[in-house]
């Protein structure tokens, strides 16, 4: 006889969501035994359709979704989603692996009704400060979002550890975009800027409009989350973000944009060549401190932590009161559905430990 | 009215223990409010003496210990320690910040009586496999030891995350000794081996007998903990450890040893010079994989993660099924009382979250 029934409700069975469902299914039995739980997936929704069952969705249906079958109109629509979520049997975890800018209300409904929330979706936390604050107002350890910065790399929990143990974070510095890491590594190898962007686009590293990455917007969303975690009441417009292309290119369609970027090739080539003569290179570096946030192309010595970075790796360098002379550094791939799903799953395990109690 | 009284019992009010007591006192009120707890320090013991009070030791007494007053024979002796610990009011955390090789029985008493255990003391976990196994047999999340490898760096919890989320660790590789990191950095800069060791000893980086470090024993203790965490039933004699001095030097006193190590200067100088010509350097690298464990001087490209290391920093490189093409890397100072105490305190907070439950 299991002591507690844990309901799991998923928004966004996309690349990350499907990998996550697989992980939950694979590890369900072990978790149930270790933590004396009965784990049920009670809802799976995308923006249009969903399936829902308070007693747990049949494993065959979950497997169908994992193996690529999409939700169809045979299943119920998302109209009464807030209602379903607030009546999801407790204890309950709502997971948002969408990239929706409008999931805020649903997350709030979940928190209000006593659910835990796990996000890989950066947007709710990166919108206005008041939204960030509101999502954190339902008590300690109710909302988890390890994968919003650096995917599965232990970034958010390291920030939390610093804060909870009374350390003071003086500066967080690093490269937070695998896409831009790949482009900068290729520039360093002498590839023209336009070719770097084309290749990154072809390999699926960039968003379908590469300006989403090249404008620094994706990095800015991560930086604003870190800034707010260390207590800054900051809005997007407070961050100084350098675009990697002239604003005059904003008016173009994606196709037109891809046509004109070769105009930037010479400029980038010269910059990297000059830096190379000084045994330096360039990185797209974001910096957070109490003084403010900046995101810009930065020259770095090749044998420094930043300059030594290669390919799509992320690097995060923490300078704190305790890690002052020598920083704490975390490095590795900061994107990808499998490592992201594993990070979300780890957040779920943290919640399970809390639910299990003693 | 607080709902739960949490007792904290400390063995070893030394450098780390005192910093820890300070952290507990500084953060007590916030923790109590956040987690609805009444936190009491109920025992502080060194190997000879101790103070104990089930209702909580008076803050003045704790402050006296923090500010350097040692425990004296005015206070009770440690003879009935197991008895005190097993009757320590629950929930209770026993903390071992000693470097005692014989605290195992006391830890076991604590676990048996329902306490949680936190260690920065490597020795109980690094003794026989059966002891390691026994300490883990009292249930999940009952024993925490983040600081036994890499001090405050998030090493142990990263291993736990891999294991719990169903990843497979293929290799853990790195430099786990700040002392040897310092010595190898100095060798790289051209300093003679004997001078490096002398300076490291003078700066308090080495144990009073530097052979404790130079024999690789300190690294081996960390490696055996990591190996066992990933499921290897390994004993110390199974690890291939390279000493940094000839075994014939083992017979000397410390003073004699310090007198003869200049005999090794030329050998080390030549090794580093040759490597330098290949744009390489040497590191003292430990490697763990299912195939076995090795700890030895290893040549590394200067622009690699290992070769790029400097000073007393530790580096830990995880290659797993998910982090296969590009590893997850953690780097930073892996020793020091303040970061170690903070790591122990973070383990305590993890336990408090579990005790708090929902």
Automatic annotation (TrEMBL), chains A, B:
What SUPFAM superfamilies does the record point to?
A: Glyceraldehyde-3-phosphate dehydrogenase-like, C-terminal domain (SSF55347), NAD(P)-binding Rossmann-fold domains (SSF51735)
Write the Enzyme Commission number(s) for this entry: 1.1.1.3
Enumerate the spans annotated as Aspartate/homoserine dehydrogenase NAD-binding domain: 12-135
Binding-site list for NADPH: 98, 122
According to its UniProt record, what is one Pfam family this protein matches? Homoserine_dh
Name one molecular function that GO assigns to this entry: NADP binding
Enzymatic reactions: L-homoserine + NAD(+) = L-aspartate 4-semialdehyde + NADH + H(+); L-homoserine + NADP(+) = L-aspartate 4-semialdehyde + NADPH + H(+)
- Lineage, top-rank taxon, reads Bacteria
Q: Which family does it belong to?
A: Belongs to the homoserine dehydrogenase family.
Protein name according to UniProt: Homoserine dehydrogenase
Please name the taxonomic classification of the source. Answer: Bacteria, Candidatus Gottesmaniibacteriota
